[in-house]
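Q: Got a minute? One more chain.
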Amino acid sequence: TVLGTVVMEGYYVIFDRINSRVGFATSTCQIEDKIFAKPSITSPRKRRFVTDCRYRQTSQNLQGAPGKGYTLQLFIGTPPQELSVLLDTGSSNFAVAAAPVESVTRYFYPHNSSSYHSLGKTVSLDYTVGQWSGTLATEQISSLWIPGGPITVEMTGITESAKFFKHLPMQGILGLAYKALARPGGSVTPVFDYLVSEGRVSNIFSMQLCGTVDKGSHLDVSTGGTMVFNGTNPSLYVPPIVYTRLAKEWYYDVIITRMAVEKEEVALPCTEFNNDKTIVDSGTTSLRLPNKVYNAVVSLMKKHVGNMAGVDDKFWQSSSTSGLLCWSTSSPDFSSFPTLSISLLSDESEDKEFTLLVLPQMYLQAYPDREHRDCYKFSILPSTSGTVLGAVVMEGYYVVFDRINSRVGFAKSTCQIRDSSFAKPEVSYPKMRQTTTSCRHKEDTGLSSVILITLGVSGCVILISIIIIVTVSCLWCRKKKGSSNRLYRELRDKAVNDDDE
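A: Always. Here it is, folded:
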């Protein structure tokens, strides 16, 4: 609500910044016709109700589709142009389509905005899937969900892209990670950093991703959720919030201590789970695991599932729609699939951990089907760039990105689930770890191996060189000694001959 000049024209208004208040009094302004009533102010009186009237964000402001991420509506430019942007905690740049690239039919028109100012720099960015490039600029943005009205930020207008917008319900991306990831070279300030520096929000935001919220039509599967730009919203979670500390402030990089399928441990050193990092990433829809971990997890899952109809190699590979698992009824049989548990290092101490449950209805992602069946896709995939706790994991929880204290928190979500017979994911309280060994991935392992090999080879070369030098020296000494003996005998014989003479 904006009390603009239409209201203020009736009163004398005092902006008392000393006491953090606004005052209203009857104005002495002359009115044109004395028969008109003058606006008046009542004396303070008791309220009828003492409920808190401050706005609490409760309605969902995110939307999307399974496997295609969560988007937020933004107003960009002057006059504002409305576009949908993907919320991505796995990157830091803010960029929108500024040309008819790929399958995008709605995009930003820079020339139609009086607040657009090009900075003349070209920005390019590669993602796990897709890439884009464009021109860096400053521009005004606003949203119903961002406090304080329009704010000027750095934005890239995308003019070229490949596989980035393909079949996705968005026209841009809003990166929410740290500035260290921003391109080019960490020189661009992320949008959330602007909001914090201007005092619009505290340095904490949170997300409630709810997964599939509507499957009335088998051709129109939708997802929903809520983004809270300023702190947390108690109506969106069930306490407590359990935190894990960040290993590094670039991505939201956390440490996994254990993984298990049902109660069977994934028998790998915990450093393998974090090879070469573990990130919490809303822009990735699946759970991605390093190849060695992925193979171990899938092997255990196959053992639990057995020879279930429709579950073949194509299903586990999840590489195409031919690997879909479909039921003809509206009640999928999730009971045949195991629960995956992921334990994270607690921020309370290095010897404590807490566990997140990734239930079958989380990693089996709803998929639209034209034959009016309930179809699902296996959404645990192999990765060559570390573990990614994507939307598949986040959809089970209320997730808090506490940048003030350099940590990420998880709590039980209040999202409504499609079928009340399904179990809800839980967060365990921190408990003592079975072992206190470090699970951080050793970033210099490869380099150390190279150094050791180099030192070994160099040592061998030096040793061989020493042997050769010693051998040659010995031969030279022998030769020299032999020559000396011959000379001694010659001199001795000559001396004897001289005596005889």
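A: Residues 444-452 have pLDDT under 50 and may be disordered.
Q: Perfect, thanks.
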